[in-house]
Amino acid sequence: MKYWPTGILLGRRLCSSLAFSITTTGRATQLSFLYPTATSSTTKVMAASLSTSQLQPKDDDDRPTLKGVVFDMDGTLTNSPSLDFAKMYARCNVPHDQDILKAILSMPPSDAASAQRIVDEMEEEGRQTMYLIPGATQVATWLHYHSIPMALVTRNTDKTVNVMLEKHWNPATESAVPKNKETSPSFDIILSRDNNQDIPPKPHPASLEYIASKWSIDLPSKDILMVGDNLKHDVGFGKAAGVSTAFFDFHRVCNNEEEIDDDVAPDLHVNEIYDLPALLCKHYSIDGPLGTN
Hints:
By secondary structure, the chain is of the alpha/beta class.
């Protein structure tokens, strides 16, 4: 095990309370982030298995500047074992290649009401079994220390988002940030399917257009990154808006990138959410004293 000075791969430094280690075995390199908690002397460790070449910064200076990261929720930041979308589609009699939200809106009133009850019931079950995906809050903490704003866009409901924040996200991020840090990682903008901005749900690009306007970024722009686990609803959503995309293959649906159609081909592809910071430092210029500039 070899310990490197903080920031040698993830920028000049992360911060005085963050460190990482590198373990090399043959051609494989394991990157471990160490996050001391604010409430105990124990250390949270997340290990990212990346090839040595993936950790090398790009040689050119044409990298976009990372100015914001937009996350999906279900399957990206959280997982709910009881929330089976294939089963939901089947119970609602909606073909899997259709958009279930649009399909329900087009049903006769009685059928739509029945399908909506099924969706509500299954989403409630999902809230009961929800947990944070390992590494999600640590990646958010890393972005927070680099002063990179975050947004959340989900096809789920405000109720589910509130459960995620109050029961899981806020307690986890508050405990991960040292007491001398004024704020913990949070989302600048949150858009669910219940948003009051009259914005259609993804994959319609309106949500990203709204977020970009709030961040004073003109689209198309590679300075915004969309991160999600669904090729259509996240990667296709990002590409439609003209932003960079990262596919988090949480469910291991793609064995290799050759299986991904060009119209939903992501810019970045990770199997673990905590692989993201190293790749961001390779593919992006990151401003500020903790960044890569």
